[in-house]
Design brief:
The chain is an alpha+beta fold and 282 residues long. The protein has a domain of 193 residues: 4-Layer Sandwich (Glutamine Phosphoribosylpyrophosphate, subunit 1, domain 1), CATH 3.60.20. It is 24% helix and 27% strand. The strands form 2 sheets. It has a 7-stranded antiparallel beta sheet. A hairpin with a 7-residue loop joins strand 2 and strand 3. The protein is globular, with a radius of gyration of 18 Å. 43% of the residues are buried.
């Protein structure tokens, strides 16, 4: 199981969430949960928005907890929107091009989960990617392919709908191949203006996803927490697992749900959908 987090709000140093909290993303990467056989040591990445029109990207195939470059970078950057990821591979090689986030134009994408029996349907899924997008695929993961399928099915104009059509296409392709419960996913993505997230699986068990409650309410619950005083009132964090054990701070995102986080938080039902031709919109 991979882990990821997304932040949107007033600019902060990513270090504050990657390293400084009680159960930071980097701490989670090396102290894995009891039901996990291995830690998240197959690479790491950070994508953020700064001075350019498209996001900046750092990726490394080194374990996150030992990557000195990531620590330096996370302390020097100040940004109001970023995605970070620690990887536990599910069969594809440990290499930089397989590390998240994945980028296309102004978009960043991270994923926790898998496509079951991916190797047996990989070719069919690849052939469905819009040829215009195909050259942007650099690695061999199911995650990067899911991103480009969602782009093919209209993500840029309809982000949640593009994800739903991607999920529907993966499930229908897997069904024809006799694969049961093919899709497990929590997804985070952003276009530099909004933060999007989805939690879904084809089977009864779905990887966890949480979103922070509004900062003003959290400050009232925990006025002694100095870390919270400089966060903007609209700041939100979306995480695979809570970064700190504070009752009332985290809301679990229900399975089969999607979020759009701007100044306000919107939650929608998420359900795989039928798909149409390249560049379609919902």
């Amino acid at each position: 199981m991979c882990r990821w987090l997304g932040y949107i709000g007033a600019p902060i140093e990513p270090r504050e969430l990657l390293y400084d909290t009680e159960r930071s993303l980097i701490e989670q990467s090396r102290r894995h949960a009891p039901d996990m056989a291995v830690p998240n040591g197959d690479g790491t990445g950070l994508g953020w928005y700064g001075h350019r029109g498209e996001p900046a990207l750092f990726r490394s195939d080194a374990p996150a907890w030992g990557d000195a470059n990531l620590r330096e970078l996370a302390s020097e950057i100040s940004t109001g929107l970023f995605l970070a990821h620690v990887r536990a591979g599910t069969g594809t090689p440990v290499q930089e091009t397989n590390c998240h986030p994945f980028r296309y134009g102004k978009w960043l994408f991270v994923h926790n989960g898998y496509i079951a029996d991916f190797a047996s349907i990989r070719r069919e899924l690849l052939m469905a990617v819009d040829p215009v997008l195909f050259g942007n695929i650099q690695g061999s993961t199911d995650s990067e392919l899911m991103f480009h399928l969602a782009l093919t099915f209209g993500l840029e104009n309809d982000p949640i709908g593009g994800l739903e059509r991607m999920a529907g296409f993966v499930e229908s392709t897997a069904e024809r191949a006799g694969i049961l419960s093919p899709l497990q996913m929590t997804i985070g993505m952003t276009d530099g203006e909004s933060l999007y997230a989805a939690r879904y699986s084809s089977g009864p068990v779905t990887n966890t996803l949480f979103v922070s409650e509004d900062v003003q309410s959290v400050r009232m619950l925990y006025p002694e927490r100095e870390r919270l005083t400089h966060l903007s009132d609209t700041a939100r964090v979306v995480v695979s697992e809570p970064l700190v054990d504070l009752p009332g701070m985290w809301r679990e995102v229900p399975a089969g749900s999607a979020l759009i986080v701007r100044e306000q938080l919107e939650q929608f039902e998420f359900a795989p959908a039928g798909f149409a031709t390249h560049g379609s919109s919902k």
